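Quick one - inputs below.
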Amino acid sequence: MMIIMKPNATPEQIEHVIQHIKEAGLNVHLSQGVEATVIGAVGEAHSIPTERFEGLDGVEVVKRITQPFKLASRQFHPENSIFPLDGFQIGANEIVLIAGPCSVESRSQILETAQAVREAGANALRGGVFKPRTSPYSFQGLGEEGLEYLAEAREETGMPIVVEIMSQTQLDLMLKYVDVFQVGARNMQNFNLLRALGETRKSVLLKRGLSATIEELLMSAEYILAGGNKQVILCERGIRTFETATRNTTDINAIPVLKNLTHLPVILDPSHATGHADYVTAVARAAIAAGADGLIVEVHHDPAHAVSDGKQSLRPEKFADMVKQVRAIAEAMGRSIAPIKKPVAVGW
Amino acid sequence: MMIIMKPNATPEQIEHVIQHIKEAGLNVHLSQGVEATVIGAVGEAHSIPTERFEGLDGVEVVKRITQPFKLASRQFHPENSIFPLDGFQIGANEIVLIAGPCSVESRSQILETAQAVREAGANALRGGVFKPRTSPYSFQGLGEEGLEYLAEAREETGMPIVVEIMSQTQLDLMLKYVDVFQVGARNMQNFNLLRALGETRKSVLLKRGLSATIEELLMSAEYILAGGNKQVILCERGIRTFETATRNTTDINAIPVLKNLTHLPVILDPSHATGHADYVTAVARAAIAAGADGLIVEVHHDPAHAVSDGKQSLRPEKFADMVKQVRAIAEAMGRSIAPIKKPVAVGW
Amino acid sequence: MMIIMKPNATPEQIEHVIQHIKEAGLNVHLSQGVEATVIGAVGEAHSIPTERFEGLDGVEVVKRITQPFKLASRQFHPENSIFPLDGFQIGANEIVLIAGPCSVESRSQILETAQAVREAGANALRGGVFKPRTSPYSFQGLGEEGLEYLAEAREETGMPIVVEIMSQTQLDLMLKYVDVFQVGARNMQNFNLLRALGETRKSVLLKRGLSATIEELLMSAEYILAGGNKQVILCERGIRTFETATRNTTDINAIPVLKNLTHLPVILDPSHATGHADYVTAVARAAIAAGADGLIVEVHHDPAHAVSDGKQSLRPEKFADMVKQVRAIAEAMGRSIAPIKKPVAVGW
Amino acid sequence: MMIIMKPNATPEQIEHVIQHIKEAGLNVHLSQGVEATVIGAVGEAHSIPTERFEGLDGVEVVKRITQPFKLASRQFHPENSIFPLDGFQIGANEIVLIAGPCSVESRSQILETAQAVREAGANALRGGVFKPRTSPYSFQGLGEEGLEYLAEAREETGMPIVVEIMSQTQLDLMLKYVDVFQVGARNMQNFNLLRALGETRKSVLLKRGLSATIEELLMSAEYILAGGNKQVILCERGIRTFETATRNTTDINAIPVLKNLTHLPVILDPSHATGHADYVTAVARAAIAAGADGLIVEVHHDPAHAVSDGKQSLRPEKFADMVKQVRAIAEAMGRSIAPIKKPVAVGW
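Output:
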């Protein structure tokens, strides 16, 4: 960490900063310049917040040299993290497609949708059973009943299931059912939840918060990794800006920036990132062209009757068309869509 | 709710929307215009999300007439909500000052700060014992030990204590100690936590999320109110924008907008809203001039050694000066600072 | 335009709004609902700002049915606008690549770069001679001298030249040299300049402002179109958000949204949209995958010595690599890169 | 300027940076740290953009020590800039109130409004005659006719007039009429216009752009100051954020931040900053409490018939009430409202 002092910092202020660096367990490297004094704080600095020095008298600015995240950083882990899901790998050359409805609404809805997205080329099934709704009066999800339907869909289609967790109190129940825990944008900095997930050994799909920086997303991943769980998938899902033509603004820059900073797999959610079914396919193509490792897409067999997110959900046939277009882009990138696992049971 | 159809909407699409309105338990009021058809959906519409209709074919836009929040709305509760804290009232003509350190760091620190802010004019004591830190490697709070120190500070000074809760798993422990639960910006949409707090009968200080709209803040308040807990205090603490000269951007507009929309008390946190001790006093004055019912301010007896938020913490003497300036503004507004409760025990 | 009245609007307020609609030359279509009265204002409403009615007593909200832009709208012009530049077309199936330095710095620099980008596959040459610099102390451009070098580069390479105009006082001079006028982000709402360009019959490349909505971009295009100049190219170049990892945030959603709303060609500037040479290629690929009709890219033969934007400029060989990758994406989209015009003179 | 090299920067890269610093006319101060090398670039660095070094290989980050603005900086001009307007001073202890309609619409409208705001306590009259309208189809202002009416209003009331200039082509005409040139938010980085105004010796009221940082506002002021015109008034008028409850978000932090960074007078425009007449007074009070030197407020004698900005315009009687409330806050701050000049001619 480099602490740049103000041009008129006094020797006492400099001494005070040096004292603080030592108290923090770091070594000091002093450099008296013509315009300003720069004090290096050397050692295990990634665990020390810059604010520890920013408030000291005479300090102009504090600049990290090493990144504040360590386990998530490509600096210490240059090759991509690849980890297996049921039947395919994520983070490797193959692109992963996760699809399904926003909410599990009924047994028939999720079974029907699961078959449809599987046939269209999806590798994994998404579906919410605990729903973070802005209004307390909105549908809040089917809970365990929904998990049972999802488990049945997995058995029928062979696809692993991705389900959002909202609270560590749901962990024990969900552990019995889900393959991948999804952490939603509104919980990206629910640190208690992240810590609890770090104790599990199941994959976690971590969505970027509506106004979270890329660095903050990586710090939240670090919470999970620090618990020993290495299977974190990062997900760009649009950020909140002044533009109202779309629900969110897809930060497509985040894809190459994240691929540069971290070894973790990075996917994109074009459904939330746009909020309109009409724009999902174009942004899905863009994500793959930008280097994403996968997509998570909302698909509903009857969007007009979806209890949530109908406006941004694709009909299965439109999803199938999206897969075709995404496949063409993947091939232009020298990649492919992960193959569909052979069906397990098609008695439905 | 008014559903405005596209100019070229077909009769089938209109019929389809009408069907959906009826399925939602609402009544239909159809109005065929020259340019567009408008369909009113009349009834208990506040519990129905607009997205339920936005995705339907032929729909141009859906516009609420009634607000999506009801218990929080001034429409149904025109007079201010006033509720007592230990020794004073919030939401009334008197202005409430909550002050204290970001984190409880030690027994002596919190006792010393409590006495100092009390003497300077504070009405309540803040102090964090569970800390939402961006980095898993940062200090995470003293936990129950911190609660015990806070309880001791309350006993000595007579001030009620305001403490942040991060997870419903902390609820039982904290219920034994705290007077006001604080919900931090990162948890404003932790709906499980809000619901759990709605079940208690303790005051909740709800901070606006970094990128939450004013309407979303009120919807989160609605979660608590819907559980039967009427004691919700709203807190503007700065939003995230492109400006980097300050830690956040104080949305001062939010004060009169909230006072217009809701009967709940509204306070401001100038420490987080600016991020710099140098700007806290000016923004504290502005908040009161804009109509806020109180302030929550970070004060530390030795900011240079604070384990968190030192940069934005006032020294007690600077806080005392802030109180003087705020008092002058309050008087110009025809208000006053809530009186300091008589000391309980000054044996320290 | 639909004017939705507040639930408690009085008959006098409704009558007042009706009067206003008539004064604006529009016809009235009244619809008395159960919850609210809706008043349609029918006629040439696109020329009337909604604010004309928003401030009236009793008005809840004013909603346009017809778009406020007309000449730019796909509603009235369903097929793509295609117009010829020197040797190729823009807006058609072929993708256009505009490349060159941020600033023209010297004769040799621009001639050398022009040859290099042309060989790499560029169709047009960009280069600034009047530079909008944040600081009055920064290099402000070579002025007419720069235009002469650009003209020489055009003669040598056969590529049309794209040059930024900052003020209508530069128009007469520039008309003698440039093929395409570029309007920079900071001048997107310099309405006097837009109007002046509307009087010309040269193509205009209109960049989106840093915080301009998509609708505002189209309204600015409307200023040029209203003058009779039909040759407007829209350019997404990143918007300003809270994210600081990149210079701007590429709003990739804007590509499909614009292609849906307007018939005008849409291109993307990955250099400004990211601010880092390392991320330009990934975002260039994403733009084409999202449906953009072209790219404008900063290329410098020696970025380390560029007087401006060196950090985001590609070296010619890196640009050539970008073209290869973009070509693969274009082909996956069923499109191609516009062919390079045969050289005119290679005596240099 | 401090250039911090990446931890793994090579000696060649360091040498290359040193070479660049020397080419820029600066002196080098090298400091080889344990973690990183820091190179100081010492001298007239404020005129050199940081990007000149940011793109060089091996550079981690470039940090200015001296501010990029110089004439605007309080560092070199510690006492407040105070300059006289017709009959009162701006930047001194007295608070200045500028009021009037968005647009001059007719002779009677501006004369009537001028008298009304003067009686209510205004010190100067605003009114637009060239209007920057988003739509080419909206009213664009009365032009010179409007200037004549304004001149007549000045003669009658004795108030100086503040008028927006949109282009340097309007300068000669306007010089004959106006006392203060207003530069609107959309033109804050119209550098040609700023430069032209720097050549005049009339006061310039410079509004912050919708997405301009505080530093960029000061750099734009620097353009005017660099031309020798010392009379620049800075104006916060709300920035663009995700919040849609108000037209813009008032950045109240900007008031103390600007007062800290610069010696120039700082005022606030609560009309544009909120967009709603109902919120103007609260934000006007907040501005003065935060330390602003004045206000510019939209007042219309009949907002329902205003051709622009009716929604945010105060009726004269509401403005008079606002003045009363602002006066109380000013007095609490130890300041006063600048006195109204004795009437010159009241024959109207």
